[in-house]
Each structure stands twice: as structure tokens, then as C-alpha cells.
Amino acid sequence: MVAKHHFEIYCSWSSWCPSTFSVVSSIISSFTYPLFGVIFSELVFIIMRQEDAAKPDFIKARDGWCLDFLLWCLLMGLVLFLQKWCFLKASEHMTFKVRCLLFEALVYKQPAWFDLRKGRSAAQLTSLLQDDVGKLTGLTTEHTATKLEAFLGVVLGIAIAMAKNWAITVTIIALTPLILIGGTFASVFAQVQTNKRENPLDPYHSSNVLLKDLIINYRTVKSFSQPNIERAIERFTKLLEPPTKTNIKHAHAAGVAFGYSLSIRFVYIGLVFLIGARLARSDPNLTFKDIFQSIYIVFVSIMGATMAMTQIPGKEQAQDAAKAIFGIIDEPSACDVRKEKPRKEITHGEIEFEDVTFKYPTADQPLLKNFSMKISPGTRIGLVGHSGCGKSTIINLLLKYYDINGGRILLDGVDIDDYDIASLRR
Prior knowledge:
Distance between the termini: 34 Å
Shape: elongated
Strand content: 5-15%
Radius of gyration: 33 Å
Number of helices: 14
Order of helices and strands: HHHHHHHHHHHHEEHEEH
């Protein structure tokens, strides 16, 4: 069902247009770093020719490459702007639609739905609407387009370096996994650090719910004795311990991964230049310019690919969020007011409870058991009893906020299930 909704949300021009342009801009963006390597390496060796500073050839080459560099800067700025704009446009369109669908699904759920199981408190559902919907970007074209950009950038950089000198390029490729592994580790552990969910629920949801209840019922909490307040604080502290320990472990792993990814770049550069210098000594036709350009072009291309990989939205987070969100959207409401039924009018108003048994979803014992009552049309009655005996429950059952577990409720001799819910509540 997730794939179905994902397809339906994107089947519109307002979604396809930015999504298509984002892919095209990502393909163009893959050229930026290899071209930067070519242009900048040429400028470096032109600047080093100080003895030819007054020669026309030097001035022409200097001005030409500086102009190329300026054009490259403008092109990269424009492409990156279009790419990010398209990503955000497609993402906002999708999240807007999903939020509307999710909110509509929540509004039409019957009250009993919120009591059925954990994860349906106000704080958790608010977090689902605000935070989890934003994580669905991991299932959009941004994920695929960013990977495509990284792959094409590396391939293009290697192709240009091969044209310069194949020997040093092969050496660079042999050492490339060192830096790619570093970038991958950094990306994976960054996602693990932010992915605080073993399930679609926030690991802090229990402590957040307790804190919210304490704040809302502040006067009641203050009226407790000191030992009760201390127990509440102790309970809140214990709820914080498991996610805190997990986050500390993730932080350590992410720190090691980040340290490796940062240091391996310099180790990589040192090894490549060491091997390049030895190749230049053994081959008189190989110049240091060829070595530097080949190394620099591939290195810059890999660096660009690594930066792109770290910006890929988390796919696992998106899948978990999608399961939770579309699970709620797809789950039919047991009492949906949008479903019309033929019986819409109450003619006389006779109410009869016939051996009604009802138990709240979270309760162990039934609140009403074989309850019977008959109210004639036009009669005024009062429901009297202690708190929790079922006075409000009877009204809720009449309005179909909950389904009974046994017996029947009749209106004018007709089962209440046969009435149109919207008309009944009016």
C-alpha cells in the first residue's frame, strides 16, 4: 500500500515537473567537480610560470582559464540552486498531500481507535504529523538522483584522468575504496545517530507522554505528597535512561566513523602522491603536471561524490515512517461518518438498550453488563451514579462513538447500526 500511495501522490504535473528537473540537474551537477579539477589544476601550473608572465601566450592562457573558472562558478551555482529548489518543491508537494491524508484519517477515526494500543497519544500522533512525514523524502527522487550524481561524478573524473595518464589513474582507483568506505561509514553512522527508532515511535515517547501529563495536570501533581512527587521524578528519570544509553553508543560509533572519514582523505593523498612521484622517476615521459592533474581530478570527483552521499535522505527512516503513516491512512474506521446508510431520520425517538454489554478497549472488566433500559418518546430522565459507573458511556454509545460488545441499541425499534451516523449525531 505504501508504494501505491507513493505512486498516486506523484501522479500529477506539480510533482513530476520538479522531480524530473531534479534528476536532470543532478546529472548536470555530476560534471561540476571533475570540471573544477581540470580548470583549477591548469590554473595552478599557469600561475607557477612566473618567468613567462610577460609573454602573450601566458596572458592568453591565464585569462582563458580564469574566464573558464568564472563560468564554472556561475554554472555550479545555478545548477545547485535548481537542484535544491526542485528537491524541496517535490518534497513539499508530497509532504503536504501526506499530511492532509493523515490528518483526514485521524479526524475520522472513532474514539475507540485511540484507546486500542500504544502509540496513539496526542504527543505521538503530533510527532507523526510534524516529524515523520518530513522523513518521507528518503522515498522521493532526491534519494535516487543524489546517488546518480555521485556515481556519474566519479565515472567522469576517472575518464578524464585516464585521458591524462592511465598508470597513475589505475593506482588512484586501487586506493579509492579507502576514501569511499570512509564516506559510506560517515553517512551510515550519521543516519544511525539520528534514527532513534526501533519502531515508528520516538524512543522518548514514554517520557514525553509522562511529562505532558504532569504539565497539563500541574495543580493535581502539586497536591500530591512529597514521596509521590519524588516517585514521579524517579519514573521520568528511568524512562530517559534506555534512549540515553543508546544515543551515547551511537554517538561513539559516529565519532569513530567521522574521524576515519576525515583522516583517510589525507592518508589517501599522501599514498597517491608517493606512488605518483615514483612513477615519474621511472618514466621520463611522465610529467609532474600529468601526475598532479590525474590525482587532483579523481580526488576532487571522489570528494564531490562523498559530499553528495552524506546528503542522501535516510531510506530506512523513510520506510519506517511510511509504514506508520500509511498504516493509519489505510486502516478503515469502524465508525466512519462519511459512509452513508439508508436510515437517516428518527421518527419518534424511542430509545431501548437491550442486554447491552460494553468494555472499553483498555479495560479488563466490562463497564456495562447485560444492561437494559427503555426510554419512551418525549420522556426526560436523569442518569445518576458515582463517577465511572457509565453515565457518559451510555451517551457515547448512543452517538456511536464506541461499538458495543453484546446486545442491541434500538431507536424506534431499529438497530442503531442501521442509521446513518452523521444524521444520527445531528
